[in-house]
């Protein structure tokens, strides 16, 4: 007898946690690889605020409007003031959001030691929303800074009282006095916050000091560094380090050109290790300036040797390798802290992105925190860094200033391989030339949503978009948003079709999904409830606290860099599986392969596991992996194959069923027995009693009317009802077949071409056989329905693919096994974000137990490829009615054809071939061509 265990889901979650822990260890080891060098003339960095959302400092605060307005109190810095209980929550589409006059007044006191006198003291803000007026000791530090997502600084050396306490005052306007800033940042499809939301610190610098270092390090060893100072020193030295103490190359010494405050260092380094998203090797450059032989100032910059090249009408090349973006759009966001994040949050986000086998991230729609880019550098992600501009853009004067701040801040990050000038019409073409002027590396620039710079980045193109550049054009195709994840549509739904086309299209450079996480904000004005602004921010692959939706695992499998060709395990299986290496830089021999065999049987429950030799397959090539199976492998139900990357991060675990439903069913179904079968009839109803079960069938139409056992009535009835088909079961005959009782309809090619047969066994088991023809050539569904009141179900334990539900265009990401699911009423993307969802379609159903609070019944099938449908989920729709999941009638169904799903931006049928309807053809109603469903029920409570 098969036992359906509940422990599979627990093991699944434990595996996720272990993978996460291992990656965290990796991340810490990489990030700490280069500690600070011990030089006497380094910049001192003195935080006035905290370092992030996990470490803040209380400042005095006064808010002029909304919650807790018009009183001096305290606020955590950095923070978004709405999340601290001040002001008004605004989503970008709110009619009054940009007209708001909301301001925050900040005060903070700090000491300036006497020994700072004679040095240069800068106050640095990494990000303020949105206009910032800064005063020190009542005097202006400089012009009001306008623009929320950019680091800026003021020299306050002459404003400080040395050896005494100083007062810092910052007046922050949530909405800008500069209309172009509001157009670019505030009128947008995301939450609009106010506040000093990134850290604030003091830079204590020598009188003569280095102001900026910009590095261009090519993969061939060509190295260029532009160094700017505030005044001319006499000389400069530069030394590279490849580890904590290991120097890379010889030191470079140069005399300073006293005519300017800048110098360009050029050198050729031999055989550097390259940085790429699969092997993110980092170096340090230590730059020191001198006068009279004395060190004046030393700075250390992290960088990587890598080359970015766009070959028109071909692709984007990193280190000479043509790459495809497996990317996602990411907001800097957390429900409790808004846009204020931390290094730990950046690590968590990047780990999750990489766990989905992604290699790229787009900064939508503004530059990120510096620590996020640090983590992308260390763990390996290609980055598209974006100048803010949603559907509006900065004017040229403002945009040029903010663009320089962005590039100066981010220039040395090797992870950044592309710049983006705004989003979806938020492009100021006048700014394009400044990317070239400001960026030493001359990285390519795109206009997300437009055809620009040789890249077609059009958003949400339909799969069969055949007019224009997508299929017939000559430019590189790289949609910066191509599948939309609102609720349960998009992301995983359609991605297999899209990716196979992208992977095999030479002009495709991949693309980016929209977006990473549901942006639900904690509403202090609504009892700390989570708000996604109705449907607008429920776009994530993960929930607001990183709850994983089904699409997470679909993406993980589809984007695995080790691709497994489909394989059905049959009698002649020799343990060889065909694979393709879809890495760009990594040989599969650097991965590890393991396997496990498992049998789901209570009396002989067993599993065995082992390792497989990693095959030597170059990137882009195909080969095989040999699984060293034991001689008794056929006695198991499933083969699992797990592949881990060079860092022991799981790429995916594939499952290959060995046993068929008929095989596992034979171990569970009992037909023989000594129980008498008693019948009684009343009008059209036939009551069959056997063991402790009483089944009532309608002799006219063959439907199940009711069923009960010794524990009471089971509310499973009113079936089988065909979907999509005609219940034309007629001319029933009742007869004995050995010790079995049979109720069977008759076949008539014109009037009753669909047939039904009930068989009741003396064991108490009941068999249902349905032969049917769908009603149309194109059909959303094929299968049978039963009624079952949703309020009565408590849980289900089943054998099949799980634990997540599926759609016709989202079948990957699950594993074959035994899964236990407790009832929930989750609506994807909405509170309480309980996953996996209970309701929906479940694939490759072999059998299962259905539990009420006081009773249960069992269903087993001999059909391969059957879907179990559990009830109808609630859902919202979009204004275009693209996202409207389709479900059959009834409550519990056994389907051979299910529906696909659309998204906010795509109808289901435009997501690719898998999104189309099911096709069935049989005009003549030949019985041999009918679809067959064969189910066994055990209604007994014994």
UniProtKB/TrEMBL annotation:
Q: Which family does it belong to?
A: Belongs to the glycosyl hydrolase 2 family.
Residues that span the membrane, as ranges: 20-39
Record text on subunit structure and interactions = Monomer.
PANTHER family cross-referenced by the UniProt entry: BETA-GALACTOSIDASE
Give the species this sequence originates from. Lacibacter luteus
Q: Which UniProt keywords apply?
A: Calcium, Glycosidase, Hydrolase, Membrane, Transmembrane, Transmembrane helix
Q: Which residues form the Beta galactosidase small chain/ domain?
A: 737-843
What is this protein identified as?
Answer: beta-galactosidase
> What positions does the domain Glycoside hydrolase family 2 immunoglobulin-like beta-sandwich occupy?
208-306
Q: What class of enzyme is it?
A: hydrolase
Q: Which residues form the Beta-galactosidase domain?
A: 577-638
A GO biological process of this protein is: lactose catabolic process
Cite the Gene3D superfamilies for this sequence: 2.70.98.10, Galactose-binding domain-like, Glycosidases, Immunoglobulins
- In what residue span(s) does the Glycosyl hydrolases family 2 sugar binding domain sit? 73-205
The EC designation for this entry is 3.2.1.23
User: What Pfam families does the database record attribute to this sequence?
Assistant: Bgal_small_N (PF02929), Glyco_hydro_2 (PF00703), Glyco_hydro_2_C (PF02836), Glyco_hydro_2_N (PF02837), LacZ_4 (PF16353)
The Gene Ontology terms for molecular function here are: beta-galactosidase activity; carbohydrate binding
**Required cofactors, per record?**
Ca(2+)
Domain Glycoside hydrolase family 2 catalytic, by residue range, is 308-431
Q: Domain of life of the organism in this record?
A: Bacteria
This entry carries the following GO cellular component terms, namely: beta-galactosidase complex
Which reaction is this enzyme known to catalyze?
Answer: Hydrolysis of terminal non-reducing beta-D-galactose residues in beta-D-galactosides
